[in-house]
Amino acid sequence: MVKLYPNPTQQNLTIEGDGLETFKLSDMLGREVLTKQLDAQNDTQKLNYLP
Question: Residue 40: which of 7, 17, 6, 24 has the closest Cα?
Answer without folding.
Answer: 17
